[in-house]
Structures are given as structure tokens and as C-alpha cells.
């Protein structure tokens, strides 16, 4: 049987309004009264009706999260963080998969679900500024990733260029000189272009040649793409002494091919990935990787949506940089790597 506010009020010997004030965290409730009501709530097992609470505010209690590739471990882990961040505010997350296609990203961004969601967190790949201007039923919107838009939307990302420079500097500090980049993209300016720029800048700063014969483009972001790119380099007679990969799946695919060709990681070829996904921490050789602060990205995205719902004025676009760190593991340090830490 469902416990009601009336049941809690009767059990605590207070008014329904007092119980409602406690449940809704009203500031003008004495600590003694709050403790008394909370004791009754705990003893009766009362659970607030979140749907009704949101409806009273004219909201649905749902935030949409639209991602380009759910099979990519980074996006799967980011989605889990967004779900947790939203749950802390009693919100549910509706997950959308765009495949990184402009038509799907436009459909999501133009408010096709404006009647069932309160806001949208979108990680675009192909979306153009005119697509964002075309929304007929706008909802609070936050953008993730590296596409730049001259529009008044909060935009959350890490500094990909700086992170890539740090990764390549780490390889250079280990004495590596022929450093390949796997995962360049042939299309528009995406994170791969920024990470490639960081690769080039780090080499230039060290007085090393950025040999573009060691740059391998890929059509996708997965393990097979990394394996194919590594195989192409080796088959062309280009054997780097280090690899900086666009992401962890590409790095892991490359490491598989290196093992098949009899090359040891890191003794023969050191490898650095990007995104610090869980699987990179549990391979036969653990993967050094740039680790974005996924929890911070998720928290800031959810808080931005909620602040817009609460009436925060839309002004100039805010470019919000989340943190990151380079986690050094066996794929660059070998036996000198620190012991693994829990995920």
C-alpha cells in the first residue's frame, strides 16, 4: 500500500503542510521538526511522488542525452555519469543515439520531444549552426565536445590540444622520437583535428619532425579502426617507436596488431590512448591514457540545464573547460608503472 503525506502527518502528529515542507526541503523548518517528520518518513517508508512534484512545476522530470555512438566506451561511461548526476536532482535521463549524423542531430536539437523533456544535453559531430537556429520548440540545451557554435548555449569540453600536447610530451620524455598519430579524420573540425594539432605542437616544441607519413586516418573510432591503421603503417614500412591514438579503442586495436607482429609494448613501441575507459585498465598491458573528468562534465551539463529551467537568462555562450589528467600505465612505463588503482 502506498504511503501518503496524510499518513506521514498522522504518524508524526503534524500538519500535511509541515510534512510537505520537509519533503520539499523548505528552508523555514526547525531542525527538531525536520528530524521528527523525517523519523516518520523513514519508519513508514514514504517515497515522494516525483512525477507529481515535477508536474506541479510544469515539468516532466526528464532530460535527454543525445550521443553519437553508444558502442564507444567513453560515451557509455559518460552516459552513466549523466544518469547519476541527474538522479541527484530527481531527474530521469532519456538516452538518444544520433550515429553522428547531421539529420539525426538536427532532429534532436530542434525540439522534436519538447513536450516530453525538460532539457537536452547534446554531443554533436555534424550539426551546423543553422540547425540549432531552426528549433521550433526550443528547450534548455547544453553542448558537449569540440564543435564550435557562435550561439548562446553552454558548451562543455576539455582542452583537447593541451591534453594531446601533454600526452606526446610524455612520450618524448621517455626518449621516443618517431611518434605516430592514429585516428586522424578526413571530415570537418572534430576532436581528432585538435588532438592532431596537439601532437604536432608537442613535436615542434621539442625540435622533432612531425612526419605526416606517421599520421593514419580512420573512418571510425573503434578497435578495428585502430588495428587497421596500425597495420597500414607497418605494411608501408613505417615503424614508429611510439603511438598516440585518438582514443582508447584505437590504441587497444593498435596494441593487438603490434603484438601480432612481434613488437613489444612498451619496449619497442610505447602507446598512449585518450578517454581512460575501463577496459584500458585491465588488459595484459595496461594503457596510459588522457583521462577527462567525466563526472565533472556530467555534473556541469545537468546543472546548466537545470539553471536554465529555473530561469537563468540566456546570454553569451559559455565555453566551460572540464579537467583532465594523464594517467601513466604499463603501455609507456612498463614494469615501472605504478600499481593499478580501482576504477
Write a compact overview of the structure shown.
This protein is α/β, with parallel strands linked by helices and 343 residues long. The protein contains 13 helices and 12 strands. It has a 6-stranded parallel β-sheet, sandwiched between helices. Strands 7-6-8-9-10-12 form a 6-stranded mixed β-sheet, with helices on both faces.
Describe how the helices and strands are arranged.
Blueprint: H1 5-12, H2 16-23, H3 31-44, H4 50-56, E1 62-67, H5 73-87, E2 92-97, H6 102-109, E3 119-122, H7 129-133, E4 141-144, E5 154-157, H8 160-173, E6 179-184, H9 191-205, E7 215-217, H10 223-235, E8 242-245, H11 248-260, E9 270-274, E10 288-292, H12 294-309, E11 319-321, E12 324-327, H13 330-333
Parallel strand pairs: 1-2, 1-3, 3-4, 4-5, 5-11, 6-7, 6-8, 8-9, 9-10
Antiparallel strand pairs: 10-12
Explain how this protein is built.
The chain has 343 residues and is an alpha/beta fold. The protein has 13 helices and 12 strands. The strands form 2 sheets. The protein has a 6-stranded parallel β-sheet with strand order 2-1-3-4-5-11, sandwiched between helices. Strands 7-6-8-9-10-12 form a 6-stranded mixed β-sheet, sandwiched between helices. It is elongated and about 80 Å long. It starts with a helix and ends in a 10-residue tail after the last helix.
